[in-house]
Amino acid sequence: MPFGLAEDFGRSSIWIASSGLDPAQITAKALQFLDCGQSSLCASQTKIGAETVLTPSGGKQLSALFAGPSVCDWILE
């Protein structure tokens, strides 16, 4: 996982824990899917009118570890 996404993942895990939830229980599947190659950190962005669509590459599902920070970045633009 790229360093910047790992930082975002760490910060979100801290926030989840501070909310009284177990971050490992919530995030383990996202890490497992990435590790096993079931999800992708690569996507293309397409704007269709006012809507933005993220499409993962390689026929895999888009990793939540990539999608969450990417969407937040686009919102802040």
Summarize the structure.
Helix content is 55%, strand content 21%. It has three helices and four strands.
Tell me what you see in this structure.
This protein has 77 residues and is α+β, with helices and mostly antiparallel strands. The chain contains three helices and four strands, in the order H-H-E-E-E-E-H. The strands form two sheets. Strands 1-4 form a two-stranded parallel ribbon. A two-stranded antiparallel sheet has the order 2-3. The chain is globular, with a radius of gyration of 13 Å.
Helix run count? 3
N- to C-terminal separation? Answer: 23 Å
- What is the CA-based Rg, rounded? 13 Å
- The stretches of 5 or more residues where confidence is low (pLDDT under 50) are none
Structural class label: alpha+beta
Number of strands: 4
Strand content: 15-25%
Query: Could you give the order of the helices and strands?
Result: HHEEEEH
Notable traits:
77 residues; alpha+beta; two-stranded parallel sheet; two-stranded antiparallel ribbon; 3 helices; 4 strands
Question: How are the SSEs ordered, and which strands pair?
Answer:
Elements (H helix, E strand, L loop, with lengths): L2 H16 L4 H13 L3 E2 L2 E6 L2 E6 L4 E2 L1 H13 L1
Parallel strand pairs: 1-4
Antiparallel strand pairs: 2-3
